Amino acid sequence: MIVRPQQHWFPRLFVWHGAVLTNILFRLSLNFCASIIAVICERAYESLDIRLTLAPFSLLGIAIAIFLGFRNSVSYARFSEARHLWGNLLITNRSLLRQVKSLIPDEKAAIEHFTSLQIAFSYALKHQLRGTSPQEDMLRLLPQERANEVLNTQSPTNRLLLLMGEWLGHQRQEGKLSDISFTAIDANINVLSEVLGGCERIANTPIPFAYSLIVHRTVYLFCTLLPFALAPTLGYMTVLVSVFISYTFISIDALAEELEDPFGTADNDLPLNAMCNTIEINLLEMNGVQPLPARLQPDENYRLS
After folding, report:
1. Disulfide-capable partner of 262 in 67, 82, 223, 299 (CB 3.0 to 4.6 Å)?
2. Which residues of 59-94 are buried (b: 16+ CB within 10 A; e: fewer)?
3. High-pLDDT (> 90) share of the chain, %
């Protein structure tokens, strides 16, 4: 995610990092070449009685703008829901540890073990969503035996939920928690399960491919033919106008495609590393652990991963 300070409107016009322009530059260059060809060959294809007017492009442009707007809204809704789920993950982890520390304050070793399971759950979820290996973080956060148990399962994140439930049941069996306390803590563990399910739903259910394909094809066909309709009217200005219109449509299409998977590593995706880091710092601080891990900061390009 790009995290940069507020800027005046003028320097913001020249911002490069975080803009989708870097991803669509080659595609715009193809439109630039097509515009030059359209201007050079204008008289040739008109002599063949081949004419394109702006009327169909005006109607089609409105339709494309509506479809792109809808697709962008759906993609941003997925991004917004993903951010809400991870915010809920942070809140629930804080509440869980607060409940545990309040109800069994004398069990320091047990609380530290439960905290390590909470932190490991966040990192395991991040790795699951990004398709990376959780091995390094699991070995760092958990005892060797527990880490191996988690890593040897098909779903390490779900296994960590099971371990939290087993820990809670063990505390109840030893009489350290009342039925009411057990139910309250178990309810928050269920919230973690809901967060896991919500993230899996977003990650495993993309926008229907056929819909995305129709919009994608229509945008590129529109941008390819547009210079040939503009050339008779605008002449050499066709290049500038065509590239600018193409930038508008293609950039919105590219941004919607990027936001469709909010858990990735693109510039505008969620900073899951920073979120896991925040959860780890918060929980360790609640346990009085010192020194705390360093808080992740944006790099020189204002990018927070």
Report:
1. 82
2. eebeebeebbeebbebbeebbeebeebbeebbebbb
3. 54
Tokens 């962008």, residue? 72
What's the pLDDT at 82? 96
Give pLDDT tens digits for 87-137.
Answer: 999 999 999 999 999 999 888 899 999 999 999 999 999 999 999 999 999
With a cut of 70, say whether residue 46 has pLDDT above it: no
What was the pLDDT predicted at 143?
Answer: 92
